[in-house]
Structure formats: structure tokens, C-alpha cells
Amino acid sequence: MPVLSLRFELDDLTRPEVIRLLEDHLEDMYAVTPAESVHALDLEALKVPEIAFWSAWEGAELVGCGALKTLGEGDYELKSMRTTAAARGRGIGTAMLRHLLAEATSRGGRRVLLETGTEDFYEPARRLYAGNGFTERPPFGSYVLDPNSVFFELSL
Asked: Residues 113, 78: contact at Cβ < 8 Å?
């Protein structure tokens, strides 16, 4: 089913369906990745001034989310990229990624960075990023080398 009328909303993280999607995201991360290698943020950690969070909607249905964290000097980090189970395989992740890249560009961004997992569960995410021009890079910021993490960047 194609993406029809996808709407992105800068979100205040108070709607129950958004909270549930983030809870599902964290549950999956902890189910497939050793706890010390999980870098997904919980609800409170997303409610900081340096993070802008968007939800994606088709009509009244929540279909995904994603966030940008300001790192300074024109760098942004992608956080909390997630598509609902019911909406997977329909291009929602690609649409959200393109929305976040456009937002980073409009905010004067020069580069977008991200961390994701190395387990098979994360293969669709790695394909999404590589297919949209991201290239692998060493850890950035406070991240360290970890066999459970892979890091990407894209120059804007």
C-alpha cells in the first residue's frame, strides 16, 4: 500500500499512541541488543531542548516517528526512527528520513550522523540509511567502538 497523505507533526510527546510507539521501540531495542549497547532514548530523554521530535500520521493513524538532536557546529544526530508494525514496508521510514534531512538542512545543518545496531533486526535500517547516501564512519560524540553498533554520516 503506497504512502498517501503522510503528515509530519512536531510532537510534544504527550499523545498515548506516540508514547506507546516509543515504548515498543525501547522494548525491541532491549530484546535484540545487549543493554550496554542500547542507545535509544526514553520519553523523558527526548524531552530536552536540543531534540526536535516528529510523529508521522496518515489521517488519524500514527505510522512512525523520528527526531533530530542538535550536536552543534551544524551537526545533527538522527534519533528514535521508528515505523509502526502495521505500516512497515510502505515507505514510511524513507519519508520520515527525507523529512528529517530537509529539517536539518533548513536549520543550517552541514552533516547528519547516526548510530544503529549490527544485529539482523537492524538490517532494514542499515539498508535505508545506505540507500539514502549515508556512509559508515567511526564513532562520534560520546559513542565508543562497540561490536553491536555501526555509525553513519551524510553531508548535507
From this structure: yes
